[in-house]
């Protein structure tokens, strides 16, 4: 049950994004880095299980950012030729559109490509620019339920806003982990400002939020469907799986909304535990300076990286930040 938290409430960082990627821990995943070839302007991790090498989160040197979470839509026919991770790629790999709110991209994705048969997803995307008169460019929100380009919602368009998203449609406040995450992020910002924390102290307080584990442990003989609904309660998902569920298909990892992809339909939990695999914190300062830290808790081999090797940190300034 992935989670993303976005805030514009810090006076020194007009854009903050926190993300947990929850997956099968042995799912092959490339660590965050600058991409290769013609896409050297893109920073992010990549999913290696599918040939398209899609991603759940990426940012570019010119300030374009995209973040995707999946959810299951019961009864919706899914095209195996379309990748949800590829939706992030489609935004960050193409040249930037001339309109500031990416209306051309939205029309291309919704009206031309067609997203109703991609599978359940929510895509956050936008170009990060310096706030003006308290206004922020914000992020667009598209899901497989978006019927036309005119229906695109925008979030975090002003300062002092915090929003959360997990493996359900955006705005679903019935998930405790979203409500809890928004509260914790707002409190961390207030505490950091009052204590005058330096950047590293603030970053660690954000990783602390991503590591909050309130997941009840399974009870003896507890039905699988009943237990997986508990995943919506915890920001952090500790590794779990075993003989009680080793015959359960991966696409049933959630009771109602989950993180499955078509390629995982034959994978079973017994082949590897499920839990929080990657954690990412992104800060953008008032000067347009980006600090991007990815923490790898598991490296696709059911093992934890050495402590000294778990974090990757990148820093750069957004091109065109003032415009």
From TrEMBL:
GO cellular component terms, semicolon-separated: Golgi apparatus
InterPro entries in UniProt: TANGO2
One Pfam assignment: TANGO2
Listed GO biological process terms: Golgi organization; protein secretion
Highest rank taxon of the organism: Eukaryota
Listed PANTHER family: SER/THR-RICH PROTEIN T10 IN DGCR REGION, TRANSPORT AND GOLGI ORGANIZATION PROTEIN 2 HOMOLOG
Protein name: DUF833-domain-containing protein
Species the sequence originates in: Recurvomyces mirabilis
């Amino acid at each position: 049950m992935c989670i993303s938290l976005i805030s514009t409430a810090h006076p020194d960082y007009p854009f903050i994004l926190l993300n947990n990627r929850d997956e099968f821990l042995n799912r092959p995943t490339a660590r965050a880095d600058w991409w290769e070839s013609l896409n050297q302007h893109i920073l992010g991790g990549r999913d290696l299980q599918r040939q398209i090498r899609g991603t759940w989160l990426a940012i570019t040197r010119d300030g374009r950012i995209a973040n995707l979470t999946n959810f299951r839509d019961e009864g919706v026919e899914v095209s195996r030729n379309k990748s949800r991770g590829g939706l992030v790629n489609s935004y960050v790999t193409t040249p930037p559109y001339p309109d500031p709110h990416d209306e051309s991209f939205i029309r291309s994705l919704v009206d031309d490509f067609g997203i109703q048969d991609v599978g359940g997803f929510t895509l956050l995307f936008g170009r990060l620019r310096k706030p003006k008169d308290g206004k922020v460019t914000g992020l667009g929100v598209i899901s497989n339920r978006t019927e036309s380009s005119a229906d695109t919602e925008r979030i975090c368009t002003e300062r002092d806003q915090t929003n959360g998203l997990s493996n359900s449609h955006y705005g679903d406040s019935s998930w405790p982990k979203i409500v809890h995450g928004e509260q914790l992020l707002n409190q961390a910002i207030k505490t950091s400002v009052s204590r005058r924390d330096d950047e590293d102290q603030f970053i660690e307080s954000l990783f602390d939020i991503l590591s909050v584990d309130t997941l009840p442990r399974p009870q003896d003989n507890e039905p699988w469907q009943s237990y997986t609904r508990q995943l919506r309660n915890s920001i952090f998902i500790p590794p779990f799986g075993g003989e009680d569920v080793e015959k359960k298909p991966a696409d049933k990892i959630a009771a109602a909304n989950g993180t499955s992809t078509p390629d995982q339909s034959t994978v079973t939990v017994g082949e590897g535990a499920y839990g929080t695999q990657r954690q990412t914190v992104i800060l953008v300062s008032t000067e347009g300076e980006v600090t991007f830290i990815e923490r790898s808790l598991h490296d696709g081999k059911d093992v934890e990286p050495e402590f000294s090797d778990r974090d990757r940190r990148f820093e750069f300034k957004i091109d065109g930040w003032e415009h």
